[in-house]
Fold this protein.
Amino acid sequence: MARFCQHKYSAGDIPLRQLNFNFVDEFYSYVLKNPIKPNDPCTKNGAMKHI
């Protein structure tokens, strides 16, 4: 999640008050499109585990 926050907000972390459906949806899309390991992308179930 730190990589997503850095990419999206240029910050390492955000307050819990700013978490909303839009944030969760964007994070879900980010996890699916930007795998940690290049040869091992996340599936829908793996993305849901990260959330």
Notes: The chain is about 55% helix and 0% strand.
